Amino acid sequence: xxxxxxxxxxxxxxxxxxxxxxxxxxxxxxxxxxxxxxxxxxxxxxxxxxxxxxxxxxxxxxxxxxxxxxxxxxxxxxxxxxxxxxxxxxxxxxxxxxxxxxxxxxxxxxxxxxxxxxxxxxxxxxxxxxxxxxxxxxxxxxxxxxxxxxxxxxxxxxxxxxxxxxxxxxxxxxxxxxxxxxxxxxxxxxxxxxxxxxxxxxxxxxxxxxxxxxxxxxxxxxxxxxxxxxxxxxxxxxxxxxxxxxxxxxxxxxxxxxxxxxxxxxxxxxxxxxxxxxxxxxxxxxxxxxxxxxxxxxxxxxxxxxxxxxxxxxxxxxxxxxxxxxxxxxxxxxxxxxxxxxxxxxxxxxxxxxxxxxxxxxxxxxxxxxxxxxxxxxxxxxxxxxxxxx
Amino acid sequence: xxxxxxxxxxxxxxxxxxxxxxxxxxxxxxxxxxxxxxxxxxxxxxxxxxxxxxxxxxxxxxxxxxxxxxxxxxxxxxxxxxxxxxxxxxxxxxxxxxxxxxxxxxxxxxxxxxxxxxxxxxxxxxxxxxxxxxxxxxxxxxxxxxxxxxxxxxxxxxxxxxxxxxxxxxxxxxxxxxxxxxxxxxxxxxxxxxxxxxxxxxxxxxxxxxxxxxxxxxxxxxxxxxxxxxxxxxxxxxxxxxxxxxxxxxxxxxxxxxxxxxxxxxxxxxxxxxxxxxxxxxxxxxxxxxxxxxxxxxxxxxxxxxxxxxxxxxxxxxxxxxxxxxxxxxxxxxxxxxxxxxxxxxxxxxxxxxx
Lengths: 390, 355
What we know:
Chain A has 390 residues and is an alpha/beta fold. Chain A has helices spanning 7-24, 26-45, 63-72, 84-91, 132-137, 154-171, 183-186, 201-231, 233-237, 244-269, 277-301, 305-325, 334-337, 342-352, 358-389; strands at 54-59, 76-81, 95-100, 103-108, 118-120, 124-127, 142-149, 187-190.
């Protein structure tokens, strides 16, 4: 008499078969490894700091005036030049500026840079006349030249022109035409002040990279499911003690496991599993389950490689939108927030960028769980109908 | 090659083609990419400082800022809403202009300045918005500044990102139609063994390949023109534009036919395209980043077709300017006929053996 086989044994056997098939498919195995490598390399190539100051070359002002200017204007980095000629040549791209021990050294284009000096990018320059301070204070009109590289945006050019005028007003002793109790009281900062600690491109792209990995998992699972349906191998499995439910549960588990495994590899490689590894893994597990559900939908819809790819893309593009939206400052639009992948992206951003914990990400986890149940359930039902129709 | 049979196959492909997802890709992807790149990435790489104003008295400052290039202005009704948006980083800064603000400034009453800065706004945006706002208030005050500012622009003006992205978008439209469509179509017919059936008819494989090529080429040129139109970049140099697009279409269609005849199935084509797509698209990246050494772009074969498109569309060049690059592209097209003919012959032999 044959011993009855438990559901868990049946499902785990199918999971093993599915994962083995995944590994045997050379195209997807190659693309999976390729995407992981590309994602990791791209992550480390992206800058991890944000250039948020305007480097303004300045000639004709005394060092004390320059220092005062740098301290009074947050976001402005004055770079002192000895002469207007030097300043002009650097802005025009005929020479480069290097800073060594607080001094700017101008080197002709192609010439060797001074040792120990750091290059500085100066694309806008304010050339004050040597007698600017005394003449303006005496009420004599002066002329300041603003040198602008063609690539400088209009708003910076206008702001620097305004700055020169405001400096002149200040030197001439003209008070502001508005009441200002002080910089802190007048320019009120709302929210956490992240000046000098902005979200870098590397951090901003993290959700997209994670999503690319999940996307690959979706294509792989959808392709394997479509192939099983086309080749009708799924019907062969059903003549064994396995039920349709076992096959589908196994597909979901295999998809979630492979997606989670890839995501963990990538998160480790991009050093993004801290500070809340368990929370991040939970988010990724839920994301993988959600994507598995999507893969079931795409796999059931596709008739061949191309149509599966097409349906996969059609399902994935909307899911990718929140990851792109996270790159932009501010609140995402209502329709973006309504997309199933939004809680995953928002949760990841909150944990990895802002250091949120379980309690702060509870709404995202709950929403993601609800989407998981919904999408996985939908994929399950659609795929079951497809399998039963064979 | 029989033209009659070629056009008969083309007619069949045109009838059955729209049922294939690849046709939808050809039509939809350029639209989608235009949307994503122009709307999404245009803002991402060229972010403008965002200023919100609550204007309770019709201040001249609001009108001045709205006309100022490079600053994204949002006019709001409610101060609390302004503060909420600034705090949520939907705005970089917020300015409140109470009723009578301009009159108070002009009369020297020195009204209080209510200016909010977002904690997540960049320091550079803060200085731009603060200094610009003060300058606007000075202009309302009407006092002449004690300095004359002379702006000297040096070097070439950088084109907006939306313009620099045009070669990428056009190249993608060309690639999808000219490379994807013929290659997948040939591989799909091979995979489904419909090509096997054709070899027992008088139809020659070269006629099938030519029909696929004509379809891909026609759609490529059409979609490239449509994409240029969508991006507001249709050139006035109509003849020059048509010539460069025809040559670009020919070169890319040839690549598509080579991929299709070299691969044994659709998966093979997919792998080829995934593996070499970067090489085909690489020259377009150099337009987005003009600081990169531009000579590197010339190492890629597609540079010789995309640069004429760029010159004609963006710089308004005529054929006289781009003829050298077009000649190189034409030479590449001629040279690539050799491997294409070989691959067609090889495939024909394989099909004959299989039959």
